[in-house]
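Quick start: read one record
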Amino acid sequence: MSTARMENPVILGLSTQNGQMRGSVKPAGGPGGGGGGPQTTQPAPVKPSSTVNNGNSQPAPTANTIIKPGDDWKKNLKLPPKDLRMRTSDVTATKGNEFEDYCLKRELLMGIFEMGWEKPSPIQEESIPIALSGRDILARAKNGTGKSGAYLIPLLERIDLKKDSIQALVIVPTRELALQVSQICIQVSKHMGGVKVMATTGGTNLRDDILRLDETVHVVIATPGRILDLIKKGVAKVNQVQMIVLDEADKLLSQDFVQMMEELLSYLAKQRQILLYSATFPLSVQKFMNSHLQKPYEINLMEELTLKGKVHCLNTLFSRLQINQSIIFCNSSQRVELLAKKISQLGYSCFYIHAKMRQEHRNRVFHDFRNGLCRNLVCTDLFTRGIDIQAVNVVINFDFPKLGETYLHRIGRSGRFGHLGLAINLITYDDRFNLKGIEEQLGTEIKPIPSSIDKSLYVAEYHSESGEEVKL
């Protein structure tokens, strides 16, 4: 059994066919699936030696802040040079929304445009309107895709300058990230006439932070240990905080921080809004969400990246393996149809089958696949038990299973009745715990895929005449 380890991702259209797809025949080896162009970058983090008063300063309002009725306020903006570099689809694949569509304060829009943010990125399109409604959010997106703007824009829009209290907390795992986020927050809010932003992190003078909190502060951007210390000392009053953001939540909810985060939340009002942003969703994030979030709106933009990378890997396998027939497993009916459509677009014929299809359609697909009318079948675990198709010599877990029993039943679809078979798993970063668990349950090691696979391991005509079993 070999495992292809990959980490990266295309939204595909749903198919309404009855499980049979026939792509046009094409030469082996399709086009590549990597993302092109450099990532867009957020403002560079402030170096510890630079003079920003630990993120506590606020630029003085400019003359442009005062807008008279009838003025074309956009003409007065000091826009940065346009960024003409190529950008990847995780930033450009938007719905076409504009920042003005969200009914934001004009002064906030001015700061947004002067940051060089022309239009909302996908994560901003998904997050901003939901966050403005006051609903909890669980969002998954890569760094460098506008994540900071996705939560800072609604956070600043909801700040009430008439209240001299901390109204929003942004918790981050490192001092560098706290300084970077505070710099962005200060710049975006510079025309808003008095939003007070403070960064507080470990490793800096606690006395300075205590003195700063004697004055008005609306937004605190902090590392967990420092803000918890200030709260316990009675210096940081957080009883009127209406929004708390956990940026890089997977790190904040790891063993190093999770107890501090639980304690921190105990000081906040029960009617607060929680926004979680993370590149991965380990079990710790899921557990925290179940305990503290109220019917969160879930955003997952990483799914597209994962699917894109896996499809590219699958295309490579098709071009390099000698497949008689293959079964490709997914964990949901929707994924089955998405993948089947993508495989057909790559030029390979495939069928698909899942439990939501009508029984007569499933029967027809199974009959035709068994009779060799198609080389590839995409399916759910509906197809793992009691199905014997001797021509199947390759099984691919496109989505890795969660249980050892499921894994055994899946890979058992190849190599029936003593014939040879090959099982390949496409593993993402999120699958690492399931992979380790299944290896422990089954007392085996699922090895990385080698650069070349010996055909005698899974192709009958290459099998040793001596009949000796060849192990991976």
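The longest helix spans residues 302-320.
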